[in-house]
Design brief:
The structure is a single chain. The protein is mainly β. The protein folds into seven domains: about 50-190, Jelly Rolls (Sandwich); about 215-305, Jelly Rolls, CATH 2.60.120; about 330-460 and about 465-505, Jelly Rolls, CATH 2.60.120.200; about 510-550, Ribbon (Laminin), CATH 2.10.25; about 585-750, Sandwich (Jelly Rolls); about 755-770 and about 780-920, Sandwich (Jelly Rolls), CATH 2.60.120.200; about 965-980 and about 1000-1125, Jelly Rolls. Helices cover about 5% and strands about 40% of the residues. It is built from ten helices and 79 strands. Strands 1, 2, 3, 4, 5, 6, 7 and 8 form an eight-stranded antiparallel β-sheet that branches. Strands 19, 21, 25, 26, 27, 29, 30 and 32 form an eight-stranded antiparallel β-sheet that branches. β57 (about 850-855) and β58 form a beta hairpin. It starts with about 30 loop residues before the first strand and ends with a strand. It is found in: Membrane.
Length: about 1200
């Protein structure tokens, strides 16, 4: 051939005036370039490169092997254009030898409107078994041209090593045709090849022992195989330990074996790779670094502990060539894919014989369909629930029979369907025994057509039976019909059968679970197109099990409204540290996280004969990294350390070295020679620091060496030395020496991350941090509060990629990002304004499957990622918080607890040096004040809030715990009010503000009780003017009297007078009852037996004062009074013969009832509750009463008091008696 050829046969390459040769380090040496001007010197190089095409516009030839060159640019249109422009066309290049291909470039057909806009690249060593090149393991297509003249070059992220390259057009100029000029770049690639026959062949390499051995040894190789199992590498170490690298079901296993174990026993160190039996080259590196082994398969690496140093490497018998068996596969990628082959000939009417192999991830799909030769029947061979099923439709459906199971494992499975002499046999993986038989009553012979993977729509027209099954997505190979192999290349050339949307001569199966994108131990499963993560029992959630379902601290649980209990906490959120179970002790002042160990009790030392020291090790329920992270994020940690001694010295010896010590801190801990309550390194105890030891010549009580029992106890509070790992006690063997020790659990409070906040007071202010790295998965969480209607919380930019979270309006938060597929947005709309100056929580996540956004407790909004798109988030600028790089759309307000992938950004430290931003953000009661219950008052703190329960009858972190006590008949609690000033004129002291106004225009009384006593007096209040108020239970005979009025309605007792000068309030037995009605006095002397709880009289909580503050409150307690939880709902026993109620009432000052004695009897209506003689029911209710509807005054023999005034009990001061 010569330059200046006038007729163009095939034109590949660019119209360039000189040969293009590039350095290998940049984009590779020029491998294939056509249309070079006067380049006779490289004609021989190019003529060794062969070009194949599917068809050409100039003729119907299938294969062209001709190359022409142009001397002039105007010599005519140049490039390749197929006869038909569809997706079944391709262009193939044979580079003559294996080549490291680093880049490709495309150009449209010269002087035309023909060019490609996107295409696929395939590579092969043999011209068969093609493998698609993918970017980022996901993107399959390459961008093409936008016109016929510009050159678009794409540098391959990972160089492809192959001899053959095939380009498949996907899209082209809609106003033209497929048109292409192609150039490839690369370098020659040479390597030694070993062929192993799978028998006893081996290659042995022995390492010479000696001082030259280094701490790093590397074995690197590439392999390809059609078998899914076999030994790849074997290494023998010392003491009978061996290491082997074995292929098992297409995965590479690193196995450890020991001589003492049975030959079949092994320990699998790790497993890597998948589908490695695809007859493509795979790169394996086994690297030993000191005590670790790194196993790399292709681009994925696993690190394991190295048990022994290796001495011997053994790899199979050598044949320096590599057999290339031809096995042409077909890929069925979608619902329209099918292969049609001719069916039975007239010479084989006695039955049917079809065979093939398939592999798939799908649990269902139609494999084979054919009509019976005699009309009116159809045979379906399909997958259902990962089992193979055969069903025949002829005058109705026949029962399906199903050999094989779990056939969606991605492995090749063989299927043989035969019917001879009336016996139908179907086998799956024959060697494994998956065979089923049937004897149909009619002949089973194929019609004129067989369909694999589906059926043609045109074939279904007029057919009786439609396809009721899912389409097959997977690969097939080794097809046989009537024991004759099917040549897929003839199918591709349209010389045999027909097909639609098939990929021929390749298996395009992809293992989306290798490596697994499921994090934190999530179990990966997949179909042909997607993968799924099962996150159950992992403690994480989301599409990839990325986000923790647990809070990061006890502090966070408290602010969700939780009280004390056991909780799982995940200290680093989505990070690698696993959740841990801790006890959260939520007190009114602090929230403690308690981390126990194996012995927190006081333990007596039992010396062992001949052992001078006693050593004890403490094992914590949390793992090492969990402990250290919990200590690090806490504001304060402490651990009790105490030593009880009798003639057993602790620290100070004559020569200065301590008798005893402990180890604390990270790892195994460091030796510490100080004791609880002292400073690190002081070699003292708490008494030595305070100067009050029993012997001032020593710094510890125990060092006085006395015969009396004494102790040295205190708290260790220096976080660097916590937790206590071990304790060593020395002076325990002397005669008379006795000792005991106690190491308490590790206790920490405060979460530095939870309250880390910054206030942005200008729209132009922002904080900046280093670039956020969340290439494959990213989660962002924070809290914000603002009065503004919009603003950007966070932004990070790349060249094209970005990530941003913003408040787009007063009711909407938007999470937007771009990873190369175009911008995506996830929005959450709130029904209430978000600029209410209250804390709102935002949680955003983006992974390879989806993006999600959650606002407060609203439903999660999600946006799926493209199935075949970019998924690496590539950022390179600074991370901006509270604003953007353009200083526009800034956020005004507070941002708190900002975490990216489980790492908290220190907003406060950065805010200290940033103008326009202030560290911290006060004002938490507006958001958390509602957690304070039962008249508890929210008090602001620098970091958080506190519920003040001083005005409540309850206690606890949220004033939620009832204060209850058990009463006996002789128990009496008297709360004494201070005598009014006018009644104590001889007193010079002014009355206290608490008791100064004891003339009450209304009483608010509430309490809960449980008792089986009736009648009973619950509460008695007296005044200095012989007035009293009594709350009692009335019962006569066997009749129960309960109290009932509608919920959320309050009850008023009104009088024409006032309840003046309260003197005392009595719970239980009343000792002074001279002024009472005789019947009431008799009842008061009996006392109360049962449980009283949350007693509240106006602003006074007498029972709480008696139980919790008896020494500082004006209370007098007589008889037994035991605090208990008898008043809580959880303590109610449904089988106890008691009744539980909760009463509350108010007495107002408005005059409407003139009678001196008011008796109110209100009955409880209980529906659906059986009352038997053996079991009396219990009930506990809360009544708030402002107004009574339908309250009746009645005279009853069951009630000892009536509503008539008793003249003998009415004094000149018009005393009033209220019985509720």
């Amino acid at each position: 051939m010569r330059a200046g050829c006038e007729r163009v046969c095939v034109l590949y390459g660019f119209l360039t005036r000189s040969a293009r040769v590039l350095a290998c380090e940049l984009s590779g040496a020029l491998v294939s370039s056509l249309l070079l001007q006067n380049s006779n010197a490289i004609h021989s190089f190019l003529l060794t490169r062969t070009y194949f095409i599917s068809s050409n516009l100039d003729g119907n030839l299938i294969t062209y092997i001709c190359i022409f060159f142009y001397s002039h640019l105007s010599a005519g249109a140049g490039g390749w254009s197929p006869l038909i422009s569809d997706k079944y066309q391709w262009l193939e290049v044979d580079l003559g030898e294996r080549t490291k291909i680093t880049a490709v470039a495309t150009q449209g057909r010269y002087g035309s409107s023909d060019w490609l806009t996107s295409y696929l690249l395939m590579f092969s060593d043999t011209g068969h078994n093609w493998k698609q090149y993918r970017q980022e393991d996901s993107i399959g297509s390459f961008p093409g041209n936008s016109n016929a003249d510009s050159v678009v070059q794409y540098k391959l992220q990972q160089a492809a090593i192959a001899r053959f390259l095939r380009l498949i057009p996907l899209d082209w100029n809609p106003s033209g045709r497929i048109g292409l000029r192609l150039e490839t770049y690369g370098c020659p690639y040479t390597s030694d090849v070993v062929s192993l026959n799978g028998g006893s062949s081996s290659l042995v390499y022995r390492l010479s022992p000696g001082p030259w051995r280094t701490s790093k040894e590397v074995v690197s190789l590439k392999f390809k195989t059609l078998r899914n199992s076999g030994m790849l590498l074997h290494a023998e170490g010392q003491q009978g330990v061996s290491l082997s690298l074995e292929l098992e079901r297409g995965k590479l296993q690193l196995l450890l074996r020991k001589v003492k174990l049975p030959s079949c026993s092994h320990n699998r160190l790790t497993s890597l790779g998948s589908l490695l039996d695809d007859q493509h080259w795979h790169h394996v590196v086994l690297e030993q670094r000191n005590a670790h082994l790194n196993l790399t398969v292709d681009k994925n690496t696993e690190r394991v502990q190295c048990p022994e140093q290796l001495n011997n490497l053994d790899m199979g018998n050598v044949t320096f060539s590599c057999a290339e068996p031809v096995s042409i596969a077909l890929t069925f990628p979608g619902p329209q894919s099918f292969l049609q082959l001719p069916g039975t000939t007239t010479s084989s009417l006695d039955g049917v014989s079809v065979g093939f192999q398939f592999r798939t991830w799908n649990r269902a799909g139609l494999l084979l369909t054919f009509g019976l030769l005699q009309k009116g029947g159809m045979v379906w061979l399909y997958l259902s629930d990962a089992r193979l099923r055969l069903q025949i439709h002829k005058g109705g459906l026949s029962p399906a029979f199903s050999p094989g199971a779990a056939l969606n494992d991605g492995q090749w499975h063989s299927v043989d369907l035969t019917c001879r002499r009336g016996r139908l046999t179907i086998s799956v993986d024959k060697e494994e025994g998956g065979i089923a038989h049937a004897t149909p009553s009619f002949p089973v012979t194929t019609g004129s057509q067989l369909f694999f993977g589906g059926k043609s729509d045109s074939w279904l027209i007029g057919e009786e039976c439609r396809n009721p099954f899912e389409t097959f997505q997977g690969c097939m190979r080794l097809l046989t019909v009537e024991n004759q192999p099917v040549d897929p290349i003839m199918v591709q050339q349209r010389l045999l059968g027909n097909y639609s949307q098939l990929l021929i001569d390749m298996c395009g199966i992809t293992d989306r679970c290798s490596p697994s994108r499921c994090e934190h131990g999530g179990r990966c499963s997949q179909s042909w197109t997607v993968f799924h993560c099962n996150c159950s029992d992992t403690g994480y959630s989301g599409a990839t099990c990325h986000s923790s379902v647990y809070e990061q601290s006890c502090e966070a649980y408290k602010h969700n409204g939780n009280t004390s209990g056991h909780f799982y906490i995940d200290v680093d959120g989505s990070g690698p540290i696993k959740p841990q179970l801790v006890y959260c002790n939520m007190t009114e002042k602090n929230t403690w996280m308690v981390l126990p160990h194996n012995n927190t009790e006081l333990t007596r030392v039992q010396p062992s004969p001949g052992v001078s020291q006693h050593s004890v090790h403490f094992d914590y329920s949390s793992q090492e990294e969990q402990l250290l992270a919990a200590i690090s994020q806490s504001e304060h940690c402490e651990q009790e350390l105490s030593y009880h001694c009798r003639k057993s010295r602790l620290l100070n010896t004559l020569e200065g070295s301590p008798f005893s010590w402990w180890l604390g801190g990270p790892g195994q801990g460091r030796v510490q020679t100080y004791w609880g309550g002292a400073h690190p390194g002081s070699q003292q105890c708490a008494c030595g620091l305070q100067g009050d030891c029993v012997d001032l010549q020593h710094y510890c009580n125990c060092d006085a060496d006395r015969l009396e029992w004494t102790e040295d106890s205190g708290l260790l509070t220096h976080k660097d030395t916590l937790p206590i790992r071990s304790l060593v006690l020395g002076d325990i063997q002397r005669p008379g020496s006795e000792a005991a020790y106690r190491v308490g659990p590790l206790r920490c409070h405060g979460d530095k991350n939870f309250w880390n906040a910054a206030f942005f007071d200008k729209e132009t202010s922002y904080l900046h941090f280093p670039t956020f790295h969340g290439e494959l998965s990213a989660d962002i969480s924070f809290l914000f509060k603002t009065t503004g209607s919009s603003g950007v919380f966070l932004e990070n930019l790349g060249i094209k990629d970005f990530i941003r979270i913003e408040l787009s309006s007063s009711t909407q938060v938007v999470f937007s990002f771009d990873v190369g597929n175009g911008p995506l947005e996830v929005r959450v709309e709130s029904s209430v304004p978000l600029n209410d100056n209250r804390w709102h929580r935002v949680r955003a996540e983006r992974n390879v499957k989806e993006a999600s956004l959650r606002l407060d407790e609203l439903p999660v909004a999600t946006q799926e990622a493209p199935a075949d798109g970019h998924f690496h988030l590539q950022l390179n600028s600074q991370l901006f918080i509270g604003g953007t790089a353009s200083r526009q759309k800034g956020f005004r307000g507070c941002i708190r607890s900002l975490q990216l992938n489980g790492v908290t950004l220190d907003l406060e430290e950065r805010a200290k040096i940033t103008p326009g931003v202030q560290p911290g953000c006060p004002g938490h009661c507006s958001s958390y004040g509602s957690l304070c219950q039962n008249q508890g008052r929210c008090v602001e703190r620098a970091n958080g809030f506190q519920c003040d329960c001083s005005l409540s009858a309850h206690v606890g972190v949220f004033c939620q715990t009832e204060v209850s006590a058990s009463f006996k008949s002789g128990t009496s609690v008297i709360y004494t009010f201070k005598e009014p000033y006018e009644l104590s004129r001889n007193s010079s002291a002014l009355p206290s503000s608490i008791y100064s106004d004891l003339t009450l225009r209304g009483e608010n009384v509430s309490l809960s009780f449980r008792t089986n006593q009736s009648p009973a007096l619950l509460l008695y209040v007296s005044s200095y003017y012989r007035e009293y108020l009594a709350l009692l239970i009335n019962r006569h005979g066997t009749r129960d009297i309960f109290f009932f009025w509608k919920e959320l309605e309050d009850f008023n007792l009104t009088s024409d007078g006032e309840f003046n000068a309260v003197k005392s309030l009595v719970l239980g037995r009343v000792h002074e009852s001279d002024d009472l009605d005789p019947d009431l006095a008799r009842l008061a002397s009996l006392g109360f037996t049962g449980c009283l709880s949350v007693v509240h009289f106006n602003a006074i909580s007498p029972l709480k004062a008696a139980l919790l503050h008896p020494d500082t409150s004006p209370v007098i307690i007589t008889g037994p009074l035991v605090q208990s939880n008898c008043g809580s709902a959880a303590s109610a026993n449904p089988y106890a013969a008691e009744n539980t109620h909760h009463l509350s009432g108010k007495k107002g000052g408005a005059s409407s009832v003139q009678s001196s004695v008011i008796a109110v009897v209100i009955f409880v209506v209980v529906t659906g509750l059986a009352i038997t003689a053996r079991f009396l029911y219990q009930r506990k209710e809360t009544y708030r009463n402002q107004q009574v509807k339908g309250v009746q005054q009645e005279n009853s023999q069951d009630f000892p008091f009536n509503n008539q005034a008793d003249s003998q009990n009415v004094s000149s001061e018009n005393p009033k008696e209220y019985i509720i």
